[in-house]
Design goal:
This protein is mainly alpha-helical and 67 residues long. The protein contains two helices and no strands. The protein has helices at 18-31, 39-56.
């Protein structure tokens, strides 16, 4: 629920489930004999997570690279 100052509370309408959407897209591609490739999205997501962890945690002292 989102409530802005001076307004009535508003409820957001639920959207489609992301897992179901992916499954629907995959099956539609298989039935239509089309390629289905999520590699770009997966690579971007993984590298973003790695970058976030690298920015958050200092280098390990066990590697001798302590600042």
């Amino acid at each position: 629920m989102i409530q802005l100052k001076g307004s009535q509370p508003k409820r957001l309408k639920p959207g489609r489930d992301g897992h179901q959407t992916e499954w629907d897209d995959l099956l539609a591609a298989v039935v239509a004999n089309r390629p289905y490739n999520e590699l770009d999205w997966a690579a971007d997501s993984t590298l973003t997570a790695i970058l976030g962890r690298m920015a958050t945690y200092p280098p390990s002292s066990s590697r001798g690279t302590r600042p």
